[in-house]
Design brief:
The protein is an alpha/beta fold. Helix content is about 40%, strand content about 20%. The protein has helices spanning about 5-25, 40-55, 65-75, 90-95, 145-160, 170-175, 185-190, 240-250, 250-260, and strands at about 30-35, 60-65, 80-85, 105-110, 115-120, 140, 175-180, 195-200, 215, 225-230, 265. Helix 2 links the parallel strand 1 and strand 2. Helix 2 packs antiparallel against helix 9 (about 250-260), helix 3 packs parallel to helix 4 (about 90-95) and helix 8 crosses helix 9 (about 250-260). It is elongated, with a radius of gyration of 24 Å.
Length: about 270
Amino acid sequence: MRRTPTLLALLLSALLAPLLVGCGQSAPSVTLNVFAAASLTGAFGELGTAFEKAHAGTHVVLNLAGSQQLAQQITQGAPADVFASANQKQMDIVVQSGRIASGSSQIFVLNHLALVFPSANPAHITSLSDLARPGLKLVLADKSVPAGQYALGFLDKASADPTFGAGFKAKVLANVVSTEQDVKAVLTRVTLGGADAGIVYISDIAGSAGNQVSHIEIPASLQVTAQYPIAPLSDSKHADLAKAFVTLVLSSQGQDTLRKYGFIPVAG
C-alpha cells in the first residue's frame, strides 16, 4: 500500500493549488500594444496610465512613431492591439491588409497646423509669407508622413490665394533643408536651432513644449484639418481590452485629456 500516500499527496496538491493561487499569487499580467501616431505621445501616455489603473494586471505599451511607419509594421505582422493613426490613408492600408475590420475605425480627434520657429527668431519671421523668403531654412515632416501631407495641403491652399501667389509653394519647398519621419522630430529640430522654421500640429506646442518656440497659427481659410482614426486590431489576443481602450479614448475622460494636449475633441 505504498501508493496510497503518493496518491493522497497528488489529490491534496490538485485541490490546494487553486487556493494557493488565490491566496498568495497574483494573476499573470496582460500587455496591450497600442500603436499611436507620434503626435499623440503625451495624451496617450496619460490615457495609458489611466487605463492601467482601471484594468488591474494590464500593462499598456505604446509604440509611438510616424503613422506610415506604424502601418508598415502592422502590415508586416507586428503584434498590435490598437492602432491610432494621424490620417485615414494609413488606417486604410492596415484595413486592406486584413488586420483591421472594414468599417471598424472611428475618427476620435482633430488637429490643426501651426508654423513654429525658435524663440530667438534668428530669421525674423513675422508672417506666413516669410516662408518663401530666399535663404530661409525650413524643416517639414516627410511627404509620406501625415503631418507632411497636411503641410503640402496648406501650401496648395496658400498658392491658390492671391495674397501669396501661384509660385508660393515652389518657393517654400525650395527652402526645405530637411524632411523628418515624424512630426515630433520636426519640432525637435526647430527647438535645437537646426532650422529657422517648421510646420507642426497645434497639439505639438501645447503645454511646456510651446515655451521653447514661438508660433504663428495658420488661418482657417488655409488650414488643413487633420482627422485621427482609431480601431482595435481584428486579430488582437486581447480583443475586449483593445475595444475598452478605444472606448476610453472616445469617452468624455479621453476627449478631455486630448483637449488638454491641444487636440480638437470630436466626442464626449
